[in-house]
Specification:
Number of strands: 14
CATH topology of the largest domain: Aminopeptidase
Number of domains: 2
Distance between the termini: 110 Å
Shape: globular
Number of helices: 12
Helix content: 25-40%
Structural class: alpha+beta
CATH class of the largest domain: Alpha Beta
Radius of gyration: 30 Å
CATH superfamily of the largest domain: LCP protein
Oligomer: single chain
Largest sheet: 6 strands, mixed
Amino acid sequence: MAESSPTQGFSRLNPEITGRFKKGEDPKPTRGHKTLEWVLFGIFAVLLVVGGIAVYTVFSSKHRAVPNSFDAGLRQDRINLLLIGVGGEMHQGRGQDLADAIILASLKPSTRQVAVVSVPRDFYTSLGRYGSHRLNQAHDIGGQSGYPGGGPGLTIDTVSQIFQQPIHGFIKLDFKAFEKIIDSLGGVDIYVQRSFYDYLWREGFRAGWEKMDGNRALKYARYRFVIGFEGDNYARELRQQQVIAAVREKLKKRNPNDVMGLINTVRALSANTDTNLSTTHLVWLYRNFGAVSPGQIRNVSLKPFMEKFTLESMSDPGEAVRTRTGNLDELRRMAGPIFSDMRQIRTADQIEVDGTSTIPAEGPVTSTLPPPQTKP
């Protein structure tokens, strides 16, 4: 039997095949090769277009913006705003985009009531498709992953899910903007209710009134390497609320034009300072809530509802906090009817945010505690 050519069986499927090429001659593409090339080219073109659209979408200003629903809050007689504090370029080391302070401020237009809730930055909770993390990581993850609205968008959606409350707008400040606001107001007057000393920064605060510039107020709001009641993050959160209250007292004496000028100056100062509230909304807030009395403001710490625990994860170790019940029911029951009672929510070891309401006749006193003495 004669031997068959290796190409004989394939010639019926591909009549162009010969199995023989002249020396120096390139093989000619077959019809099958041409078809495959066009199919692959088409797939590549589609992927290129889809990828381009995705990149444009993620980096477009519309995708990065967080739409506000301020007017919806007005109609519902409850406006929920999220205040986000980040380190920015003044934050030493890593963590410039982590949320250093997260505060939910609820306002009731019909009665001029305000509730200020400090949400622990170490609250271990679900960040949607990104899994469970500390809440302060939401801002960093949202900004790095292309989440709609970036860092503020993911932080807002997470806080909204925790309390089952819509967030109608946000304001984000970094350390530089924080200092600039206070310095532009000529400093703020803070009543330090308990002396404390930070062993990392070797500086402290003595009980009593103190007039603080922006840098000093930032330290008061951030120090946490402290032995005693003022050493946990909950104490730091209430000191942050004190600073906000002191800024509000200073703003009472300014007219709306001055306030808007200050806001515009701060926004131009720092790329990390942002808000999705319009100028009209900001002016409305100042005119309607700029002069509320301390008795109309409810200061809330979540310490009564939380417990500490240690994360064992290799990628995310260390101390965090979670609800003592293992679910979010208590927080949601508190947040829903938050204006039904205006008493402060705190534990017995925490300060009263409005612990005193008048500055003594001799005026504010600036002082620091000396370093602790060691025994010989």
